[in-house]
Amino acid sequence: MTSVCQEETIVLQRCQRGSSEAFEVLVNKYMKDAYFIALGLVGNREDAMDLSQEAFVRAYRHIKDVKPGRKFFPWFYQILKNLCISHLRKRRYRRASSLNSEDCPEVASTDDCFSPEEVASRNEIKDKVWQAIGKLDEKHREVIILRHFKNMSYDQIAEALFCNKGTVTSRLYYARKRLEELLGTGKGGFIHDMP
Length: 195
Fold this sequence. Notes:
This protein has 195 residues and is an all-alpha fold. It is 68% helix and 0% strand.
């Protein structure tokens, strides 16, 4: 009769005592979420796989830092998000450096990271949506991804981002308005159909 939350607390305690098998339970539970969140933030499948795996490695190394009573995913999400942000900064820096050097190969800009080539398996509308999401600033992009692609509740998003529910609501409102502008959809368009 233990709840899912209690079961995860028990698994987390076992992890903090050094159980790699218990950590594997957490990895199996969250690996798809981690990959898709990273993909949404960096826009490249290989980078998303590498970053999500690196986030789990770092989480394992620092699992004892999770405070008692705290849930694993919001803590883990911060590790993953910080890795993705760092990766994007390095990619921008490499691109800027390559413009000053003839010997360096050009690295794709962040505007290209949501190009149709990256998401070739998706249809034309999905390509346009991903391109528009890629143009959002980071705080708006992450709430769209967490809400509409990971189906997290407003409360869950607030917990993961360490902000209040009102902030989540506000960011979603402005993110949707910006997507509406980028996609050229008006009232009654599919952006308004998003919950």
